Amino acid sequence: MRRRERLTGFLIIFILLTFSAYSNSMNVGGRMSQTNIQPKVINQNNTKNVNSNLTNNSNINRKNENEKNLDRSINLDNSRDKNNDQGKKKENLDRTFEKIQKKPLIERVKVHTVESGETLWDIAHKHNLNIDSLIGANNISNMNSIKPGQEFKVLPIKGILYRVSPGESLGSIASKFKLKKETIMKDNNLDNPSNLKIDQELILRGAKPEFSYRDRLDQKFMYPINTRITSYYGPRWGRIHEGIDFAAPMGSPIRAVSSGRVVYSGWANGYGYVVIVEHQKGLRTLYAHNSKLLVRVGESVGRGEVISRSGNTGNSTGPHLHFEVQVNGRPENPLDYIHR
């Protein structure tokens, strides 16, 4: 009996010990499971962080891409603006050039001031002209003696500057220089050839001066009347006096300064009764404010021949003779050509 009680006690103790050991093993296993689970939680956080970082990086990349696109757009706009500005500048330059090209040639004449050491040939070369064009636009009494500070007109094209004389028409000028009337009208912005005025200046493209430098050296005139000079060539009353005035009581005889052919004899606004004599191509003399004309157009006259009587016609303040020397259609200082 006692032996059974002892065995039963041992059995109960064994069972208790076994249960206790099993419980401990379960506790240890639970802690191990918890330990194994913890890294999983950590990994989930890391994944969240990684995903967050990826999202942030993606957002940053999108932002950078947007900024790049914005920069590209701004640069494209700036480029378009620059192109537009350049286009506008070119368009403005084209319009300016077009306006300049439409201006009559006479309004595009420049003035060249002679520098020390310059010659006429230097000036002509500098402006892409020839000597004829300089002679045809300026009063040059001595081609080999020009001075610093002296001013010369520079034409925009090769040709001459011509002044319309009484009795001349667009047709006669075109025929004289073998030019087309249409060219003269276009170059000088003339709408109506019949509106041509006395003393009007024209640029004749391609024309050459008829009166050369050599002719200037060989030609000398007598005085048209042996009286004193009352007004000289040059500035007077706010404009250029284009000849010289001689005192001439009413009816005084006026003589041709050299032989030639009468190309005009009649009335001209401003000049009154006037005679014009052509001595050779490109060289004429004009006698104005006469009271009586003694020669006709086409008539030949000799040196010293009386061609008119002095008077007070036209724009005149009293009886006198207004005398001009016209070279290549422009007035020059008569004192460079006459002598007693």
Automatic annotation (TrEMBL):
Residues 62-71, 78-94 have a biased composition (Basic and acidic residues). GO terms for molecular function: metalloendopeptidase activity. InterPro entries: Cell_wall_metabolism_enzyme, Dup_hybrid_motif, LysM, LysM_dom_sf, M23ase_b-sheet_dom. Residues 43-94 are annotated as: Disordered. Residues 43-61 have a biased composition (Low complexity). Transmembrane segments: none annotated. It holds the Pfam family LysM. Coiled coil: none annotated. Residues 110-154, 160-204 form the LysM domain. This is Membrane proteins related to metalloendopeptidases. It comes from Halanaerobium saccharolyticum subsp. saccharolyticum DSM 6643.
